[in-house]
Predict the structure of FAD-binding domain-containing protein.
Amino acid sequence: MKSIPRARIAIVGAGIGGLTLATAIDQLDREEYIELHIYEAAPQLEEVGAGLVVWGHTWDLLGKLGCQDDLMGKAVQLSKADPATGYGKGFRFKKSDQSEGITFLSSTVPGDFWSIHRADLQQALLRRSNKEGHLHLCSRVTECVEQGSIVDIKFEDGATANFDLVIGADGLKSVVRRGLLTAKVPDEADRIRPIWSGSVVYRFLVPIQALSEKAPNHPAITNATMVSFYCGKNKHIVTYPISMGQILNVVTFVSEPEQEGRPFPGEVVEVSSRDELLSLFKGWENEVVEILECANEPSRRVILTSKPLSAYGCGRVALIGDAAHAMTPHLGTGAGEAMEDAVSLASLLVGGIRDGRDIPQILEAYNKLRQPKGNFVLDTSRSQGFLFELNTTEFEDLQANEAVNESRLSNLAKEINGGWAWMSTSTYCDCF
């Protein structure tokens, strides 16, 4: 039997996408066709942010990766689908930028979904990824250049390495994306840099005990698995429980839609304050104010995104996750899409290399499978964010803190609910 030479593959970035890819390759590559190296700029692995939503098909994927048991005691199941309909409890939407909030939608969504702390997911993936321990920390990649049948990468300290394939899991400001677009898709050179979405996000965590002491009858206390969206003109807040229900994850958005695509005039990340949040949401209903009064040093982060790409893989360079399709967080699917990219690419690589396909062929298959879905979700998430903040033709003249009645919100409710209709589908390659 003809021996198959091992493919040397580098993953740049050890976030959720990179670790999922490493874990999937580790579990699928039983014949060891792949020599894998993972390069991470940070001196230690720490996930930025707190909670994330995991939809049913992503939860199933975590089961196939062997991570469900590690997460079962930490994840919070927010909804369980009715077997008869396939739909479960979704989200509660209120128009809250008025003294008396109005609930205008109690949605249903396809399938089950959970909330997980990012750090818990990262640790679960680390425990399942044992690819010869080839995780290199303090290794910042500064350049990625394909030359013939190899790809050269250069590091900040001047060191170099070459591989048969380099995969960019290096996020929003991807160095690998810059190399791919510059060499292979020069017409999309304007898509190398991320763009401002027009929104900033304030994140903080509230211990349920602290909220209970301030407002014992708050809906986040009395309905412990509820996901709430508090909506207003150019602003909205999302809350849901994490860490076995002991913590309320709070994500607060403030937008200037007319600024989308322009440079952001300030720091991308900084510490904010409770007073700043209370000022921004002055005039909102008490249910919101009670949460904001529990904020302790909220982080303030600019939401940057990427323009859609025509290819996620070309030649011997591929992209996954935010490096391929950095999106707004309004659908709660960014991490899930990165994981689907990763499992798809791992499955195609292991099977393709085993069957003698060359890497450019494999990347063509990856691109056909994942690029349409990734770009669709990127665009749909953007549209959903406009709906949450009443930025539609119907509400074009609505002023901040202007009260409206429930009947006027009925069309908005239908549009928002329709934004999740596709969630029961997935388009990843599954060889497990």
Remarks:
- The first strand starts at residue 7 and ends at 12.
- The two ends are 25 Å apart (CA to CA).
- The chain has a mean pLDDT of 91.
